[in-house]
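Input structure tokens:
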């Protein structure tokens, strides 16, 4: 997957930026998250956005989720992400 597609982020209806990030598992589990006001990450819990074993699978879930809901792509710099 191209790097620009791998890091695609979306804005949800609440104005939060949704993106894929590793869980606290040394990169063995990936999930869709948003950053809270205090800088901590909050997982987006949805049956459409399950925990995944790779970034590519998690990004694919997020891309489908966003497309089905017509969420806009976020461009430019956004909050820091763990990688």
């Amino acid at each position: 997957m191209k790097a620009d597609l791998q890091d695609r982020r979306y804005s949800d209806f609440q104005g939060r930026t949704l993106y894929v990030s590793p869980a606290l598992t040394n990169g063995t589990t990936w999930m869709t998250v948003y950053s809270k006001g205090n800088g901590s990450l909050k997982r987006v819990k949805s049956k459409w956005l399950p925990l995944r074993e790779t970034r590519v699978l998690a990004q694919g879930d997020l891309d489908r989720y966003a497309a089905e809901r017509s969420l806009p792509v976020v461009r430019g710099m956004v909050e820091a992400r763990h990688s």
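The first strand starts at residue 10 and ends at 11. The chain is about 25% helix and 20% strand.
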